């Protein structure tokens, strides 16, 4: 299961009720901040989630409404908060802009209060834990190195407790060994293999996060069968020409992608203050019923649908 906390859901400029782009994806002890629009550090404080374990930031691209908050965040960390290190992941051109912002504007010759690591990434796996991976993929928007991210739990075989009991496998480390794929020998000399007590392979939950995008045809494969899709909806269909001009999506375009890809839940963000929320949701739901529009501080849990 992945948890999402939206920190900012507005497009381009903040509105009275929406901050600029930023969200946190959590999985067990791991937390990842995706994009860091202006004021993100305040949103983190207001949300109550705090800065603990928030040591990894994934950037979709280098536009200011997605990175300008890094200056304020680092300033906050300089004075008030303490974390072990800060890793910022992004494409080359994105990190060039981030480096200028942080080192030339915020630090100005001073040293950061923790190891500050800028990690250039390209499409492919960018993070791997024991039970999940994060994969970056290319997104078409204005400028180079625009990325989206797939959070995906690794496939697993469920432990069949009833079968284990029938075979006499005791509770304790023996079951852990079988789950880890290792054969055990019981006290009576009987050998038990993992295949004896593990079910068929099952895929884990899959969450896809897209920042700004100008087209969806190249996102269909990566979004296929996602349990959750977070994606922008800057325009309504009535202004599709403007959306194309500025390389953004309409609510209808995002909903059509979700429908074609077999997505289980569509969460729209990057909402322009030119529209009423109810109109955005109405347009999207006319195509794909399992659509919601995120608001600042909304929480969602993304689980594999059975």
* Principal-axes shape call: globular
At CATH level 3, the topology of the largest domain is Metallo-beta-lactamase, Chain A
CATH class bucket of the largest domain:
Alpha Beta
Proportion of residues in extended strands: 25-35%
**Number of self-contained structural domains:** 2
Q: Would you count the extended β strands for me?
A: 16
Major β-sheet strand ordering: 6-5-4-3-2-1-16
Keywords:
306 residues; Metallo-beta-lactamase, Chain A; 2 domains; 7-stranded mixed β-sheet; 11 helices; 28% helix
Can you tell me about this structure?
The chain has 306 residues and is an alpha/beta fold. The protein has two domains: 2-156 and 201-302, Ribonuclease Z/Hydroxyacylglutathione hydrolase-like (Metallo-beta-lactamase, Chain A, 4-Layer Sandwich), CATH 3.60.15.10; 161-197, no CATH class. The chain has eleven helices and 16 strands. It has helices at residues 40-47, 64-67, 69-79, 92-107, 161-166, 173-179, 194-197, 220-223, 240-245, 251-261, 277-285; strands spanning 2-8, 22-27, 30-34, 56-58, 86-90, 116-120, 124-128, 132-138, 147-153, 184-185, 191-192, 206-210, 228-233, 266-271, 291-293, 299-302. The strands form three sheets. Strands 6-5-4-3-2-1-16 form a seven-stranded mixed beta sheet. The protein is globular, with a radius of gyration of 22 Å.
């Amino acid at each position: 299961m992945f948890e999402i906390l939206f920190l900012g859901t507005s497009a381009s400029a903040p509105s009275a009720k929406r901050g600029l782009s930023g969200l946190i994806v959590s999985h067990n002890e791991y937390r990842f901040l995706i994009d860091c629009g202006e004021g993100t550090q305040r949103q983190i404080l207001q949300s109550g989630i705090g800065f603990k374990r928030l040591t990894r930031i994934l950037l979709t691209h280098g536009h200011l409404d997605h990175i300008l908050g890094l200056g304020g965040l680092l300033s906050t960390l300089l004075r008030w908060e303490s974390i072990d290190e800060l890793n910022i992941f992004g494409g080359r051109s994105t990190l060039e802009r981030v480096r200028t912002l942080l080192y030339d504007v915020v630090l100005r010759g001073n040293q950061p209060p923790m190891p500050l690591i800028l990690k250039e990434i390209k499409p492919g796996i960018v993070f791997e834990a024991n039970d999940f991976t994060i994969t970056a993929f290319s997104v078409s928007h204005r400028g180079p190195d625009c990325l989206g991210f797939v959070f995906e739990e690794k496939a697993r075989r469920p432990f069949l407790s009833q079968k284990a009991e029938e075979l006499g496998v005791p509770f304790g480390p023996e079951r852990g060994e079988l789950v880890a794929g290792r054969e055990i020998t019981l006290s009576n000399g009987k050998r038990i293999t993992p295949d004896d007590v593990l079910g068929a392979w099952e895929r884990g939950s899959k969450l896809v996060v897209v920042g700004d995008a100008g087209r969806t045809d190249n996102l269909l494969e990566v979004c296929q069968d996602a349990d959750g899709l977070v994606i922008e909806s800057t325009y309504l269909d009535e202004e599709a020409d403007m959306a194309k001009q500025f390389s953004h999506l309409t609510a209808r375009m995002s909903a059509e992608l979700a429908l074609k890809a077999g997505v289980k839940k569509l969460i729209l963000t990057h909402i322009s203050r030119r529209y009423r929320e109810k109109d955005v949701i109405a347009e999207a739901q006319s195509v794909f019923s399992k659509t919601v529009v995120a608001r600042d501080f909304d929480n969602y849990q993304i689980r594999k649908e059975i």
